[in-house]
Amino acid sequence: MDATQIQSPRAAKVGAGRVAPQYNRSGSSKGNFEMFAWLFMRLSGVVLVVLIFGHLAVNLLVGEGIHAIDFGFVAGKWADPFWQVWDLAMLWLAMLHGTNGVRTIINDYAEKDATRLWLKTVLYAATLVIVVLGTLVIFTFDPCPVANGVQLPGGFCPAP
Amino acid sequence: MSAELAEPASKIELPAGVGGGGEIPSFDVTLRVRRYNPEVSEDATWDDFKVTMYGTDRVLDALHKIKWEIDGSVSFRRSCAHGVCGSDAMRINGRNRLACKTLLKDLDTSKPITVEPIKGLPVEKDLIVDMEPFFQSFREVMPFLINRGHEPTKERLQSAEDRERFDDTTKCILCAACTSSCPVFWTDGQYFGPAAIVNAHRFIFDSRDDAGDMRLEILNDKEGVWRCRTTFNCSEACPRGIQVTKAIAEVKQAILARKI
Ligand code: HEM
Ligand code: SF4
Ligand code: FES
C-alpha cells in the first residue's frame, strides 16, 4: 500500500529545516569586535572633525591660503613634529575609519559570502599599502631632494 | 418582529444630509497587486483590479472585495482587521503598512495603488511571506519574564516610573513591518532585525526581569544591534508608532554601559 503523499510546497524553497538556510546565523560570535568597531567610528569621527577642519583651515585659509601651497609649504610643515603627529593621526584615523565604513557597506550590501571575502581582501590590501606608504612618507620626507649630487628644483634646502 | 429590531429613534436632531450610509462618497480605484504562485510560475507578476470603494474603506476592504467578488485566488493574511493582530503588514505604494489601518482616501487614488508582500522574507504566495525567520529571531531574545527570586504569593508590583521606562516597546504586535523595512535585513537575513530588539528592550528595561544581561549578550552578536545603521526606516514603518530606532539605540547604550 502506498504511503499517503503529503505535498509540502515550502520544502523546495525553505530547504532542509523549517527556516530557510540564509536566515540561520552561522555560529555565535564571541567577543566585542563589532561593539568596538561601532564605538571607534564615533570616537574617530569626533577627532577627525578637529583634525580635518584644522588641516583645511591651516592649508587653505590661513595666511596666503591656497596660493601658498607648494612643495616648500609641505616641507615646512613636516619639518615640525607637531604637524607630523597631526598628519599621522589624520592618516591613521581616516584610513581605519574609512576602511571600517567600507567594510560595513560590504557586509550590508554584498549578497554572497564569496563576494564579501573578495571585496574585503581588496579593501584590506589597499588600506595596508596606503597606511604603510603614508607613514613612511611622513617620517622619511626629505625637504631637500638631491639626485646625482644636484639639487632637484622646488627643493627646500638649507642655505649652503 | 422587524419592528422590535429597528433602531431606536435618534435623540439628536441631525440636519438632513448627514448620517446614513448613502452619503459616503464612492470612487473608483485600481489596485496593482503583486501575484506569485510557485505552482504555476517562478516569476511574480502584477495584476490590476479596478474596484468601486467608499471613503471609509481601507486597503484591506479593497483586497476583500477583490478576493470575494473578482478573483478568489488572491492570497493575503488578515485576522482582526483592526490593527491588533499584526497579520496584514504589506508594502503599499512602496511603504510598509497594515492594510487594515490604511484608508484608501489617504492614498493617491488617481494612480494605481501598488500592493506587494513585505520585503526580505521568502514569499510563499501573493502577499503571504514565510514569517518563520522573523519569529526565530524573536524567540532567540527570550521575550518572556525571567525572575530569579522566590515566586511571589501575589502580584509583582512595579512603580509607575519603572513601568513607563519600557512602555513604548510593550506596544509591538509583531507585524514585521519594521524588520522588513530595514535595508540591512533585505540583503542579509542573518541580522536579528528591529522587531527582535524591540521585544528584547521590553524585558531588558523591565525592573521585574532578571535576565537583561543575557539578552544584552545575545544582541551583542555580530548580527545584533551593531548592524543597525540608524536609517529610521523601522520607526517610520511601525504601525504602532513605536520609536524603534530609539529603542535600538537604548539597547546599544546598555551594552556599552555594561562592557565599559
Ligand atoms: C569629518 C569627520 C567625520 C565624522 C564626524 C564621521 C562620522 C562617521 C560616523 C559616526 C559613521 C558611522 C555611521 C554608522 O555607523 O551608521 C561614519 C561612517 C563612515 N565614514 Fe565617517 N566620519 C568622518 C570622516 C570620514 C572620512 C574622512 C572618511 C573617509 C576616509 C569617512 C568614511 C566613512 C565611511 C565609508 C563610513 C561608512 C558609511 C556608513 O556606515 O553609512 N568618514 N562616519
Ligand atoms: S515594532 Fe512596530 S513594526 Fe516592528 S513588529 Fe512591532 S508593531 Fe510591527
Ligand atoms: S488584520 Fe490584524 S492587524 Fe491588520
Structural write-up:
The complex is a heterodimer of chains A (about 160) and B (about 260). Chain A has a domain at about 30-140: Up-down Bundle (3 helical TM bundles of succinate and fumarate reductases). In chain A, about 60% of the residues lie in helices and about 0% in strands. Chain A has five helices and two strands; from the N terminus they run H-H-H-H-H-E-E. Chain A has helices spanning about 10-15, 35-60, 70-80, 80-110, 115-140; strands at about 145, 150. In chain A, helix 2 (about 35-60) packs across helix 4 (about 80-110) and helix 4 (about 80-110) packs antiparallel against helix 5. The model of chain A has no long low-confidence stretch (mean pLDDT about 85). Chain B is an alpha+beta fold and about 260 residues long. Chain B has nine helices and seven strands. Chain B has helices at about 1-5, 60-70, 130-140, 160-165, 185, 195-205, 210-220, 235, 245-260; strands at about 25-35, 45-55, 90, 95-100, 115, 125, 130. In chain B, the strands form two sheets. Chain B has a five-stranded mixed β-sheet with strand order 2-1-5-3-4, covered by helices on one side. The interface between A and B is medium-sized, with 28 and 26 residues. Iron/sulfur cluster binds near residues 175, 178, 194 and 238 of chain B.
Sequence-ordered SSE layout with sheet pairings:
The complex is a heterodimer of chains A (160) and B (260).
Chain A: H1 11-14, H2 33-61, H3 71-78, H4 81-109, H5 113-140, E1 146-147, E2 150-151
Antiparallel strand pairs in A: 1-2
Helix pairs in contact in A: 2-4, 4-5
Chain B: H1 2-5, E1 26-35, E2 45-54, H2 59-70, E3 89-92, E4 95-98, E5 113-116, E6 123-125, E7 128-129, H3 132-140, H4 160-164, H5 183-187, H6 194-204, H7 212-219, H8 233-237, H9 244-259
Parallel strand pairs in B: 1-5
Antiparallel strand pairs in B: 1-2, 3-4, 3-5, 6-7
Helix pairs in contact in B: 3-6, 6-7, 6-9, 7-9
Residues 86, 172-178, 194-195, 198, 237-240, 242, 244 of chain B line the site of iron/sulfur cluster.
